[in-house]
Amino acid sequence: MTTTRRDAIGALLGLASTTFLTLRASASHAQPAPLEKVGLAGWSKPISEITNLLAEPENGFFREQGLALDYLPGAGGGDAVRNLLSGQAKIAFTDPGSFFAALDKGAKLRAIYDIYPQNVFNVVAPASSGITTPSDLKGKRIGVYSLSSGTRQNLQILLQQAGLSEDDVTIIVTGLLNFAPLMLGQVDATAATDTGLALARRRGLKDVTVINVADYLNYSSDLLVTRETTYQQEKAMLRRFLAAYRRSAQWMIDEPEKAAQLAVRHAIDGQDPELNLDIIALRNRASMSDLTRRQGLGTLDPASLQAAADAYRKLGLVSRDIVIQDVIAQDLLAP
């Protein structure tokens, strides 16, 4: 082989090697950055009303923000707060009552997003009972899910608005299937939620009067809450998380039929697409208020939360005054 030919082959091999290394380096640079895992402690199992979260594999709203959403199921808002405080999650999906109770015990927390600014609790009575206002509940037997549930707390709020207390009624624990005792006449009325009522109506409940807590004191049903240390130290992550959550909530508002179909795949109670659609419509409605229409989904309303905190204090559900402005964050949501 001549020197010239050998040199030419060597040059070609060198070029090929350089090209391979360049392509390998480019491929290495093209690899996506690892996702940051963020635990969200929920109050419930994976149910249809949180399809906006359950549909993350299809939608990838959190993934687009560089986050891997890790949903931790719970059994009530108190469970969600406990999982937050234990460090198992960075954020909790919980109710104001559980938030207030944790603050009352000295936990350092911040509410960062209003999931459902509309109150979703109610009291339901047969139309024939003559119960149409909170004052009509005096002397009646009223069912609640449990003594530590939001149904009981919101019943107390409702009674308070009428100048009544639990001493003026008889509380009966009915469990989650609380409409069966109502239909059987074992209670005169039952405290429930809008989704519970929707399910009961599908199962044959008719001719009832619904007293909505929102008509008397309309405050948030659920919030996103984080620890004070997380709020102070991880604001960039929290902003990305809230941006993704807001997009997921807007998606469910914009595409309820698609969400109802995805709930069949992901929700443990999602076997009936029509019921899914009813529940999703209710949660979409609860996600919006005059304030969020002006300022965006998730905007916190300090005045309504303060009114709720004051009502909890007056009822003795918390032992000290809570100053809402000190325990909410309004700087994490983009306008």
Architecture blueprint of SSEs:
Layout: H1 3-30, E1 36-41, H2 51-54, H3 56-59, E2 67-72, H4 77-85, E3 91-94, H5 96-104, E4 109-116, E5 121-126, E6 141-144, H6 150-161, E7 170-173, H7 179-183, E8 189-193, H8 194-202, E9 208-212, E10 222-227, H9 228-233, H10 235-254, H11 256-266, H12 273-286, H13 290-295, H14 302-315
Helix pairs in contact: 8-12, 11-12
How would you describe this structure to a colleague?
The chain is α/β, with parallel strands linked by helices and 335 residues long. The chain folds into two domains: 191 residues, D-Maltodextrin-Binding Protein, domain 2, CATH 3.40.190; 95 residues, D-Maltodextrin-Binding Protein, domain 2 (3-Layer(aba) Sandwich). The chain has 14 helices and ten strands. Strand 6, helix 6 and strand 7 form a beta-alpha-beta unit. The relative contact order is 0.16. The N terminus is likely disordered.
